[in-house]
Each structure stands twice: as C-alpha cells, then as structure tokens.
Amino acid sequence: MRKGRSLERLVTVLETVLCGNEHTTIKSPLKLRDALTDQLREHDVALITKTGHHEIITAIECRDRSRPIGVDAVEQFAKKCEHTRVNHAVMVSAAGFRNTARKKAAALGIDCLDLDTAAQFNWIAAGSFQSYRICSSKFRVVAMADPLYDDKPEKIIVRDELGEILEHGTLDKYLQQCLSNILQPPFLAAGDHEIIFRVNTPGFTIENGNNGEVRPLQYLRVEATYQVELSSSPVTNTSYTRQATGETLGDAAITHIDVAGRSASLVFHKEPDSSISVRLVFNGEPPTKKSRGESLFAVKKNWPSDLGH
Q1: Is the pLDDT of residue 180 over 80?
Q2: What are the boundaries of each domain within the chain?
Q3: Burial 168-194 (b: 16+ CB within 10 A, else e)
Q4: Least confident interval from 9-13, 71-75, 288-292
Q5: CA gap 271, 41 in Å, rounded
Q6: Across the strands, what pairs with 30?
Q7: Do 249 and 270 form a contact (C-beta atoms < 8 A)?
Q8: C-alpha angle 277/134/294, rounded to 5°?
C-alpha cells in the first residue's frame, strides 16, 4: 500500500458515514482530466453530488505527513482543483496546518480539516473488536420430519418453498446460514466443534425418487462439524474537526474487519443527538477466496421414527 493510502481510506469511511445524502457518490481515488494538459490527474477522495442535470464535485486532498501543511501545498492543490474544474476543495491533514497555510486556504476557498486520534471517547468502551469466522463446515442430515417410506428409496429429491430443487451445493449454503444464525457462545470459541440442530422447513417437500411420491417436509435434524477462527482488530478513535472554527464534524470509533472475504470498516459514530449509529463500509477491494471446506449431504437409510428436537 502506498504511503498515505490508509489516511485516504479513513477519510473515505468518515465521509461515507457523515455524508447523509443519497444523491452523493464517494469515490477514492477519482481521476479528472486537466483542462490545460488533457492528462488525467488523481484526487485522493471525491464527493460527486447530483443536482438536477448537474454534478458538483468536491475534491479532498489527504496529507499523512509528520509536519503541518504549508502554503506551497495549499497553492499546488488549488491549481490542481482549478485545472480539473473541481467545484469545492478540501484538504485533510493528520498533522495540522501552519497558520499561514490556513490563511492562504481561506483566501483560495479551500476548507481545512484536521484528523486527530483520541485515546478514548466517553461514549464507547476502550479496547479491541473481536470477530469470529466459521470455516471448514461439514453437514449431515440425520433425520427428516416425514412419514417413513416403506421402500427406503436410494434417491430422494428435496424442494424448497418455491419448488426449487435443493442440490448439494444449495443445501450446503442454506445449512451454513442456519448454523450461523443459531450459534452463540460457547459454540463460538476458537477451535473445532460439533453440534446437532433442527432446521424448520415450512413449505418444503420431499419426493421419492423411485416412484415420484411427494410428501411435506416439516424440518431437518442436522449434525454439523465446524471450525471457528477468532481474530482481534484494534479500534481507532478519530475526531474529524475544523479547528479554525472549533467545529467537530464527527467522532468515530473505527475498526477494520473481514466480511465474507471483503475488507470493510465497522464504524461507531456519535450522532448530533448523542445516539450511537453503527455502519459497515466496504473498502472497495474485490472479495478474496476463503477456504470454506467441504460439506456433505448424507441421508441415513435407517431413518428413525422418533425424530426428537
């Protein structure tokens, strides 16, 4: 990752949470054509707001440097925005701005924002965020809530409430979702686990593959073996401020997590009315391949008459 990209991602996440405008799209980065050179130039973060037949573009320059931003950087960004025909310019600094730079920015119509890290907010507990991932799941359907077939067919066909046949892969995904919904501690401790659970199947049917006889299927009794991976992510407390006026645009506690193979940011944000909102913001990378393990759909031939719960 190139230097400064982490700050650009952080600003993108904050702007996504704070924007609150369904007509605004946030892109990072965004390339716009230079009116003088006809070359594409890159802006770190951009907000594109549609108003009727027009677009208003706000370009955000993110500076993750050890020193405050000076006048030269402000002037360079102002020219870049002028030549790429940006409507509104914003500079965000993790190290602040020199006073002369703030004055120059004000004269050029550039908004200066500061990004500060807080040790702790009084509205959220300090610490890290723990997440769980269920992997390497295997399933066995050990019983079906259905009157016994006398001939105990070698082949059965299960259909869902829409009449769609549940192939092995489809049933596997269905059972994986059911497992995820029911698991609670201590079954979410890191390591290997086994569990037996019931899956209600209203509207499902089961068909005898030998003679085509169809009967209702009320529920499945499933054995599952699975593995849980536990990960811990640090939480960063960030204040987004306009120090020149003392205005706080937003306080947010942010942690970065993996969701189904995609990089995402989980954001806890304090609203103006002091309520706490929670947002999940995906970072734009394509999904990564995760090992999901193999699953097995095996129906026992000696279906029990007493299925239990």
Answers
A1: yes
A2: 5-118, 128-231
A3: eeebbebbbebbeeebeeebeeeeebe
A4: 288-292
A5: 35
A6: 43
A7: no
A8: 145
Cα 84 to Cα 41, 115, 262, distances in angstroms: 8, 25, 32
**Fold (topology level) of 5-118:** Trna Endonuclease; Chain: A, domain 1 (3.40.1350)
Within 13 Å, how many C-alpha atoms sit on residue 267's CB side? 26
76 backbone dihedrals φ, ψ, rounded to 5°: -65, -45
Instruction: Detail the DSSP E strand segments found in 66-119.
Output: 88-93, 110-118
Tell me the pTM: 0.67
Q: What is the 3-state secondary structure (H, E, C) of 223-290?
A: EEEEEEEEEEEECEEEEEEECCCCEEEEEEEEEEEEECCEEEEEEEEECCCCCEEEEEEECCCCCCCC
Supply angle C-alpha 38, 41, 47, rounded to 5. 120
pLDDT at 290: 38
Spatial CA neighbour of 137 closest among 192, 183, 181, 219: 192
In total, the chain counts a number of residues equal to: 309
Q: How far apart are CA 266 and CA 129, in angstroms?
A: 10
Taking CA atoms, 93 is separated from 73, 101, 113, 162, 243, in Å, by: 11, 12, 7, 54, 11
- Per residue in 65-118, pLDDT tens? 889 999 999 999 999 999 999 999 999 999 999 999 999 999 999 999 998 888
